[in-house]
Automatic annotation (TrEMBL):
A GO cellular component annotation in the UniProt record: beta-galactosidase complex
EC number: 3.2.1.23
Domain Glycoside hydrolase family 42 N-terminal as annotated: residue spans: 1-355
List of catalytic residues: 119 (proton donor), 278 (nucleophile)
Domain of life: Bacteria
Keyword Hydrolase applies: yes
Ranges where the Beta-galactosidase trimerisation domain occurs: 368-573
Residues at which substrate binds: 80, 118, 286
Gene Ontology terms for molecular function: beta-galactosidase activity
Catalytic activity: Hydrolysis of terminal non-reducing beta-D-galactose residues in beta-D-galactosides
Protein name as it appears in the record: Beta-galactosidase
Length: 650
């Protein structure tokens, strides 16, 4: 570990059974030895509550603590998180474990932080047990206060679903192969499920903090662009520092995906430094195809996380397991031991991170452009009774993020606090509350600019459609801002005669077209539907892209899905000039960090070719690449490309 530069270890994540092998038996000897050994090596410990996996004896004694799926089947023990977040029995035993750990190690100087649970919701995000039903009913009563308000919010008169007491409230369990769940009920169940897990975290956190109040407490989030199932913007306020687990994405844009995911993490951390709790040195073992990292991607990914605000770079796991479900998951020390290419790269990464010590504690300089992400809109796009099940809010955020990079501009993904941005993009925010629309109206009227994507603002936060035309959110206020009104959605599928619709500016829509039948007199049509596809679907001449001046600000409504290339063209031709921002070189991405004394420019090559830069006279730390006379060459993306330039402001 010292050779690799390790200075912190997350310890005991799945060790409940080892610590408490029987109900009245406790074994801390092994943990004492490990913590003492790490302390002698000047390696600090992020000690976990060990509650992510309960011991088998506890499940055998109390099988009622197992969660159930929507079909009523028990989620059996044998993996992680096979416990119900609503189980008072599990809560009682977990809190006793937390208290014993805090009493034993709270004063140990090697233990510098606490790690509660792990990846909440990984295996128990949804629980349909009777225990959870009782908790859901109590949650609904607390939220609505009366069944009349619940019935109104849920539109319960539809299909004779009105309840007369909270004891009649149901969860969206399986109702038959062809049944359709009430979407408002489903959304509230998602909210309840998030809150139930958060209550588990809070209870364990508070039990530890009551005994050990002077050490920070966190838990690991799971944010990448293929997962963000929990309301982490809410959870972020409950941790002392934000931690995230991010895993390598294969494909043609792994760097873009990493930057996008980290940008959301940074927003949840309010742009303060955060902690990368887990990522992999190479391949994982849980995908259909598990590609390894090569050409410097191990070092590149670690440094990219630093560039996006991470002050700690942790890998899962230290030594590759001999057995178990993650035996073939990569580690810092592989099966082939230390004399390996992989371990040498781990050591190289440790050395590179030591050289970036000045960056620690600095904050990422924000962009002038924000892309709004809202997990509840993501939940709404997962409801099956939509015009199409192919909507994905998070993936639309990712695609817009990549479009800005392709235009030579890095945007920020934002979960809150977006009024400071000059331009805000709302990609497939299917659900927008009335209060959110009023907030947007104040922003635009005061001079802000927004881009509203297709399938945005269709329902409010109770999944009720705004009347009078699409998008109807905010009782028509969003339509007024945009200067448009639509009547229907035209949805394309693979079995249709015309599987795409062309726009007058040459772009192509392949999924969704909002049928705009009215636009304001002062609105500007930037593109209409045309050619054979538009003729087939009776869309010829209908507005597709509309710009509108509202108050002191400006709006753009994109009424259809468009390829990233079109979004990049719109950024270059309209959006960047509107806010007066100069676009950079799209082959690289630059992330700036600032302190009171210095600015650090972190530069990555995101292209498929080598890029030659001519830095100023500021000192350059080149992690990989080549130096020439007055120039630095960053290799193509499959190789690592990182430079840090420090400009003294003092």
């Amino acid at each position: 570990m010292q050779q690799a530069g390790v200075n912190v270890v997350a310890l005991g994540i799945f060790s409940w059974d080892r610590i408490q092998p029987a109900e009245d038996e406790w074994n801390f000897d092994w943990l004492d030895r490990i913590i003492a050994m790490l302390g002698r090596a000047d390696i600090s410990v992020d000690l976990t509550s060990a509650t992510a996996s309960a011991p088998l004896w506890l499940y055998e004694k109390y099988p009622q603590m197992l969660p159930r799926d929507k079909f009523g089947h028990a989620i059996n023990a044998g993996a992680r998180q096979s416990w119900s977040a609503s189980s008072p029995i599990c809560r009682e035993y977990a809190l006793e474990l937390c208290r014993r750990l805090a009493e034993r190690y709270g004063g140990n100087p090697t233990v510098t932080a606490w790690h509660v649970g792990n990846e909440y919701g990984w295996n128990n995000r949804h629980d349909y047990s009777d225990e959870a039903l009782r908790a859901f009913r109590a949650w609904c009563e607390h939220k609505y206060g009366s069944v009349e308000k619940l019935n109104e919010a849920w539109c319960s008169s539809f299909w004779s679903q009105e309840v007369r007491s909270f004891q009649e409230v149901l969860m969206p369990r399986h109702m038959g192969a062809d049944a359709m769940v009430n979407p408002a009920q489903q959304l509230d169940f998602e909210r309840f499920s998030n809150d139930a897990l958060l209550d588990c975290y809070r209870a364990e956190r508070d039990a530890i903090a009551a005994i050990c109040p002077d050490k920070p407490i966190t838990t690991s989030f799971m944010i990448s662009t293929d997962q963000c199932a929990i309301d982490y913007a809410q959870w972020g306020a409950e941790v002392d520092f934000v931690s995230n687990d991010h895993y390598f994405h294969e494909g043609e844009s792994p760097l873009d995906e990493l930057l996008c995911s980290d940008s959301l993490v940074s927003s949840i951390a309010h742009r303060q430094p955060w902690y990368l709790m887990e990522h992999s040195t190479s391949s994982v073992q849980w995908k259909p195809v598990n590609a390894r990292k090569c050409h410097g991607e191990l070092l590149r990914d670690a440094l990219a996380h630093v560039a996006m605000g991470a002050d700690a770079i942790n890998f899962f796991q230290w030594r590759q397991s001999r057995g178990g479900a993650e035996a073939l998951h990569s580690a810092m020390l592989p099966h082939a031991d230390a004399d390996t290419r992989l371990f040498r790269q781990v050591c190289e990464t440790g050395e590179a991170l030591k050289g970036l010590s000045e960056v620690a504690g600095t904050t990422v300089v924000p962009s002038r452009v924000g892309i709004l992400f809202d997990v509840q809109s993501q939940w709404s796009t997962e409801i099956p009774t939509l015009p199409t099940t192919k909507l994905d809010h998070w993936h639309e955020v990712r695609d817009w993020y990549r479009s800005f990079l392709a235009a030579g501009l890095r945007a920020d993904v934002v979960a809150h606090e977006w009024e400071q941005y000059d331009l805000l993009v709302l990609p497939t925010l299917f659900m927008l509350s009335d209060s959110a629309v009023r907030r947007l109206e104040r922003y635009v009227h005061g001079g802000g600019a927004i881009v509203v994507g297709y399938a945005t603002g269709i329902v409010n936060d109770a999944f009720q459609v705004g009347l009078g035309g699409y998008p109807g959110a905010g009782d028509g206020l969003l339509r007024t801002m945009l200067g448009v009104s639509g009547e229907e959605f035209n949805i394309l599928g693979p079995d249709e005669t015309a599987q795409s619709v062309e726009l007058s500016d040459g772009s192509i829509s392949r999924l969704w077209q909002t049928c705009l039948t009215r636009i304001a007199d002062d609105a500007e049509m930037l593109a209409t539907y045309t050619e054979a596809g538009a003729l087939e679907w009776e869309l010829s001449g209908m507005p597709a892209i509309v710009a509108h001046q509202y108050g002191s600000g400006r709006t753009w409504y994109i009424g259809c899905d468009v390829r990233r290339e079109y979004a990049t063209r719109l950024i270059c031709d309209q959006l960047a000039p509107q806010i007066g921002i100069e676009l950079g070189d799209p082959r690289v991405v630059t992330i700036d960090h600032a302190s009171d004394v210095h600015v650090f420019h972190c530069v990555f090559n995101r292209s498929g070719t080598d890029v030659e830069l001519s830095p100023s006279d500021d000192p350059v730390l080149l992690a990989r690449g080549s130096r020439g006379q007055g120039a630095v060459t960053l290799p193509r993306q499959r190789s690592l490309d990182y430079a840090k330039l420090a400009l003294n402001l003092g």
